[in-house]
Amino acid sequence: MENFSLPRIDNDTSLHDLLLKYCSFKPGDIWDDPNGKHKIACIDATDEKAVNKFLNNEKSTLAVHDPPYNFVAFDERDLEKFIEWSRKWIKNTYDFLFPDSSLYIWLGADQNNHFQPLPDFILMMKESGFNSRSFITMRNQRGYGTQKNWMSVRQELLNYVKGKPVFNINSEYTDIPKILGGYYKKVNGRITENIERGKSEFIRAGNVWVDIQQVFYRMEENVNGCYAQKPLKAIIRIIQASSNPDDVVIDFFAHSGTTLIAAEISGRNCYTCDIDHVYCEITKRRLENFRKNGKTGWQNSNPFAEEILEDVEFKNYLKDKYNINKTFEVKVSGNDAKTSKVVS
């Protein structure tokens, strides 16, 4: 199904509530992958008992978290609440990682408000038991800003570790060829330059990632309705660099299900959760869609398109609220062939 977009779910509580009836998850539910690889739970990541029940004392070598850092306008009081809230899920993460393990956290930095919550979050992490390893910047192809300031095109990714975790260096190489020489060094009595000394013809990503496309509606992996979706390529890079095949990767903020799909592609097991029924359902449907159709997302369609087809209330809401009134035909093959119309 094509051209059936869905507005941002996080910005519209009525839209969110209309989707709840299509969700198989209830608070506390845990979905076990019939293939025995993944788990999805509808729980609060700060609830120690719920996390313990979900993970069942199983440890992980890697955690990849993308917390909803834009859900408050960070005045001083809200910022304090955000940091205290973060302290709880960081503790739960620490408790369920192996002594040698890695943690990656996507976080924002509001350039109009002292770059919060990044600086206070980093200060909080000093007391977490984790050690800092790297501060990664992913450059977006599109940005926001004005003609009177530098365009904001970066996304911040914090990397922390426990002990001495695995780091698979080959996973860091990009598909960008080495083209700049000039760093000369004497090796075995002969002057060499950096290109000939390298182990690959391609450059390493380093801690500034410029080779990853920001997710937008023309990409297959796009999941309509999920704002600020992280690119699969970025999560696959993290997983392949900081874990080994069949390892468990945990993600406390499932959102669009990207970590789970990246784990499926990379041969890892993913235990992910979200406090929101809708995102748990999206994550489950995204895995099922990938296994059935080989598609990493819905491009410019959405995970609930078939249900919305038959939902007059939902279609009227999209029409009235968003002026989404374009129709297209959906053909079903076989003896029951028919043509239906749906807003898109």
Q: How are the SSEs placed, and which strands pair?
A:
Blueprint lengths: L12 H8 L9 E3 L6 E3 L6 H8 L4 E6 L10 H20 L1 E11 L1 E2 L5 E2 H8 L5 E14 L7 E11 L10 E5 L6 E4 L2 E4 H4 L4 E3 L3 E2 L22 H11 L5 E4 L6 H9 L2 E5 L3 H17 L11 H5 L2 H11 L4 E6 L5 E6 L1
Parallel strand pairs: 2-15, 3-4, 3-14, 7-13, 14-15
Antiparallel strand pairs: 1-2, 4-8, 5-6, 7-8, 9-12, 10-11, 16-17
Question: Can you describe this structure in just a few lines?
Answer:
The protein has 344 residues and is of the alpha/beta class. The chain is 29% helix and 26% strand.
Describe the structure.
The chain has 344 residues and is of the alpha/beta class. It has two domains: 24-166 and 212-298, Vaccinia Virus protein VP39 (Rossmann fold); 169-204, no CATH class. It is 29% helix and 26% strand. The chain has helices at residues 13-20, 48-55, 76-95, 118-125, 194-197, 232-242, 258-266, 277-293, 305-309, 312-322; strands at residues 30-32, 39-41, 60-65, 97-107, 109-110, 116-117, 131-144, 152-162, 173-177, 184-187, 190-193, 202-204, 208-209, 248-251, 269-273, 327-332, 338-343. Helix 6 packs across helix 7.
